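Good morning,

Both structures are done.
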Amino acid sequence: LGASAMYAYQFHNMQVVADQNGWTRFSSMQCHYNLLYREDEREMIPVCRQYGVSITPYSPLASGHLTRPTWDSDSTRSTTDNTMRNKYDHDRQIDMPVVERVHELAERLGVPMADVALAWHWAKGVAAPIVGCSKPNRVDDAVRALDVRLTPEDVDFLDELYQPHELVGPKARPGEKPLAGTDRVR
């Protein structure tokens, strides 16, 4: 049983209610989590760890931003996907140093940047990042990343430049104003 796109307190409450009623607990949380957006490390991931819930993050490659050393791309998705741009472009200046770190480590290890970004997830205890594959060979690329092992020093190198972001994804409850960052339009 999986859950997605909610506040940590809501997920915690749902687990408590399941326990109180003898229902099946949630066993998987699909959340927005990658090297450029780590806000769920504050609350959601600790709740998941408390309940032994697998983390299956979407957008593990930050909509392609963790697959190339430059921010911009002329791909169809990069030029037409407003949702992607609204999630990431606002924080471009604080995120580019992280992208540069991924590029540097990938070069040092002799692997593609995507492999480093996915290996970071496994180093963080993620069970299965949800990788969107626009081409069949992308599946093989994602599987190849399983062979990359990051050291604790590598993980620290990738983590140290991260700066907190406004929340992106959770929606306001009825009658409340949207959270900062969730009502941005381009």
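Second structure follows.
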Amino acid sequence: MNVSVVTRNSLSLPVGLGWTVCAAGALGIVATYWDESWHTDIGRDSFWTPAHLMLYGAMAVVGLAIAAWGVRVLVALRSLRATLSQRPVVTACLGGVTALAAAPIDNAWHDAFGRDAVEWSPPHMLVIFAAIAIALGALAGIDPNAAALRAAAGALLLANAEALVFEYETGVPQFTETLYLPIMLAAGLLAAHVIGRAVPGGAPVTLAVAGYAALRLLIIAALATLGRSTPDLPLAVLGLAVYDLPLPGRLARPAAAALATATLAWGASALRLASAHPDAVAITAVPVIVISTLVLALGSSRRSRAALPAAVAVLISGSALATGAGRAHAHDPGQGPAVATVDLTADTDGRGQITMTARLTDTGDCEHTTPIRLAARRAGQTFTGDLRQTGLCRYAGTVTVPGSGRWFTYVELREGDDNTEAWLPVDAGTAGQLTQTRVLYRPAGTGAGHRSAEIAAGTPIYLVGIALLGLGAAAVRRSPHRHHGA
């Protein structure tokens, strides 16, 4: 028997384990969207919610499958040093360990800084980085001849990469909406490049896009069945399929994909088929469309290659403009200690006017409670209105916001010497009424010292995640792949 063939087969991710990773990874994506809708519709909750359990249960299954792969490679090579030189399995194993470690890190973060629903908080981002690393390691470790499994892993990679912007696509942007398109484009194009290299066949990116779009549609149907908020239709990501076109030149395919994706994102937002505001999307979409069109028109000439720095500059400047457009942190300050229970009712006229009433239900006569204001927050913007006392433990106020979209509308009260708040997610563009019982709590993370502590604690977490991505990219770059038509 050919020893080299036996060794190569022994080092690859077994087909059964590979499909387990892809299926459980897809379940983790479903759980991520469920968790976001849970936080939006019900509010912040404990670690032990069904969505959290589903998410970390899925990651545990992935971790066990990856661990089994690691043991298989170790047995085949009979050397720990040789096993550690196998980048695909090492990347996937480190991703699995990191994903599982993120659960207690997230719980500790909430204990230290308050419970929040911010996707880009370091523990939440660590899960996304780990999931991307697992997908990269698995993709690099799958036998190049296992075309269907590699295609499934490519779809999982795209889903995990696009999860970076899922708050924007679920109508709950914590940061300015100008950030949406540059991050979505960067993540999507990088994923398309990896998929185009690693997945055999004539249309690898199209297969990944189709798989991801089908998963998103399944998520929408499942959440609608549960009566939860649903994400946007996956329209902009369809533009990445253009990456498979047999265009000449190294830059033509990414330029065409960027052009199609930016056009679809802008059009979807303009037609109100997406949550992001069209003006925010246009800041990046317009220059991307212009530069991509120039790249395609110039073909493979030197002037076309000179447009690459311009395209990169557009994405960077779009992010910079976004950062300058609003405060550099999310609108959710995190939930501190609970103070009372409050009945909240929000009435909207469908044209941006929100009227909120609040009734405290378990605080006695409320003699030490005074109203501060009504605040509506979305994507780095805050609009305020007066809040007045209308009776015993009852308060009311009105705030006007521009446009439509979901606004997190806060009743802010002072309990003795402490500020407290409670909120409802209100769609300002739809006339109607929303009534829920919520927790009145002291906000966490509002002080400068608290913010500095978050940065100090979060920086090493982000660095670990970025290192994982670098290791995964190297694993794919050095992995064997079956050549296919460009």
